Amino acid sequence: MGNNNIGIKAVEAQELPFLLELSRDTFVRNYGHLNEPVYFQQYLDKAFNLPQFEAEWADPLSLFYWTMVDGEYAGYCKLMREAPAKGLEEAGDQVLEIQRIYVDDRFQKLGLGKLMLQKTLEIAQASNYQWIWLGVWENNHKAIAWYQSQGFEAFGEHIFWMGDDPQRDWLMKIKVKSEKQVHHLDFTAGCIFFTFHFSLLSFTSSVAVFSCYFPHPSASFGHAWHPCGWRH
């Protein structure tokens, strides 16, 4: 893909219908064939509807971001501030949960997952959070391995309800380093090299992103997006 123009921007209110369609399509592609249809449909109806997305986006603790590549929507992430987890009680609400990270198939191998993770770390540092954590389906071995390669470690488990079907998620965490510790850390994404000075880019409602783009015809739902883990 040559020298791509890559960025992150916050999701805007008028983009929520587009985000909903994209999210639902991604979820169906990646998990539909792995679940009982009745339970899967129950979850889709509950979690993937516009009022639900609007409520999540409006939550002041929720952050939504796009990743953009050459003006196209290439992925998105959703974060939740001050989301306590069993096993991290000592940190109280000084934690940040990663709820979704999705990357379009067309933009794999550009390091977008790492870019969104870097954004998450910067937000956590800016807020003086102690931990970043997430839940990932126990059968999603690829995602588990990727998070481990990024420094996450398992610390527990919880039940994820796919409709009326109880499923087990691993809980994984990573300690948030201070700005001083990471000030000189360089981020490399494939052939693209980024240097962040950790002023802490902030993830915003349901996963914020670079500059503001309204959904346009070049954004396609025909391509598969891959979740790098959880299923919230």
Give the overall average pLDDT.
Answer: 80
Question: What string, H for helix and E for strand, traces the elements in order?
Answer: EHHHEEEHEHEEHEEE
Radius of gyration: 17 Å
CATH hierarchy: architecture: 3-Layer(aba) Sandwich
| Text of the CATH class | Alpha Beta
Number of domains: 1
Describe the fold and architecture.
This protein is of the alpha+beta class and 232 residues long. The protein has one domain: Aminopeptidase, CATH 3.40.630.30. Helices cover 28% and strands 31% of the residues. The protein has helices at residues 16-31, 37-47, 50-58, 112-126, 141-149, 179-182; strands at residues 6-10, 62-69, 72-81, 95-104, 131-137, 153-162, 165-175, 186-189, 192-195, 225-227. Strands 1, 2, 3, 4, 5, 6, 7 and 10 form an eight-stranded mixed β-sheet that branches. Strands 8-9 form a two-stranded antiparallel sheet. The longest helix is centred in the first third of the chain and has 16 residues, at 16-31. The chain starts with 5 loop residues before the first strand and ends in a 5-residue tail after the last strand. The model is unreliable at 183-225 (pLDDT under 50).
For the structure shown, list the relevant keywords.
eight-stranded mixed beta sheet, two-stranded antiparallel sheet, Aminopeptidase, 31% strand, 232 residues, single chain, alpha+beta
Short description:
The protein is of the alpha+beta class and 232 residues long. Helices cover 28% and strands 31% of the residues.
